[in-house]
Design goal:
Blueprint (H helix, E strand, L loop, with lengths): L2 H30 L2 H136 L6 E5 L2 E6 L7 E2 L9 E2 L3
Antiparallel strand pairs: 1-2, 1-4, 2-3
Helix pairs in contact: 1-2
Length: about 210
């Protein structure tokens, strides 16, 4: 970055050396001639020296200002680059965090989906079992109703048989009531009280009327 500056500095030194040579040659000429004859030459040389020196100084100053300005711009760019690198590192860290969170959420979603599918499968099995149990329960209720109807018919038949049997036995004595003992005709009665029965029951019994 500083090579152009060194080259400019060398050129300035060369220009100064040339001015020295011209100056020495001029004073040699002054010594050999009269000052009056060379005064205008002296003025021209001084003007040339001032012009060359001014231009050289102006160029040097301008170049130095450009170097400083360039260095300042480079420093600004370096700071901007550092800021960009810091932002890039922060963004990479945030991206890594977001990626990790995304993978975690994705894993949770997969697990939840699998659990839901498993639950749906189990629910389907349960629904099938419920349907089977419901069908079995309906069939059982129907069978129970049929059995109850059969029991009712048997009881009705039994009551009819019991009444007919009591009528056959007690009717021989013109008695219209009876009672049971151990599911058999225990005695016949003329009324609905135990005192009217023959034989009299030794325990509390239910007196029934022959109504068949």
């Amino acid at each position: 970055m500083y090579e152009p500056y060194e080259e400019k500095k060398n050129k300035l030194a060369e220009a100064i050396d040339k001015i020295k040579e011209k100056y020495q040659e001029f004073w040699k000429g002054v010594n050999s001639r009269s000052f009056k004859e060379n005064k205008w030459s002296l003025v021209l040389v001084l003007v040339a020296i001032l012009a060359i020196g001014g231009l050289t100084y102006t160029g040097y100053t301008t170049y130095t200002a450009r170097v400083v300005e360039t260095q300042s711009k480079i420093m600004v760019l370096e700071k901007q680059n550092q800021a960009l690198e810091s932002n890039l590192a922060t963004s990479e860290s945030q991206l890594s965090t977001c990626t990790t969170e995304r993978d975690s959420v994705k894993s949770q979603y997969t697990n939840t989906k699998n659990e839901l599918e498993k639950t749906d499968s189990e629910l389907g099995v349960c629904n099938s079992q419920v349907a089977e149990i419901t069908s079995s329960l309906t069939q059982t209720k129907l069978s129970l109703r049929q059995l109850e109807d059969k029991i009712n018919r048997v009881e009705e038949n039994y009551d009819d048989l019991e009444c007919n049997y009591a009528q056959q036995i007690c009717g021989l004595f013109n008695l219209e009531y009876y009672y049971l003992r151990k599911n058999k005709i225990g005695g016949c009665c003329s009324g609905n009280t135990a005192e009217t029965c023959t034989p009299k029951p030794d325990t509390t019994v239910t007196i029934k009327q022959i109504s068949c």
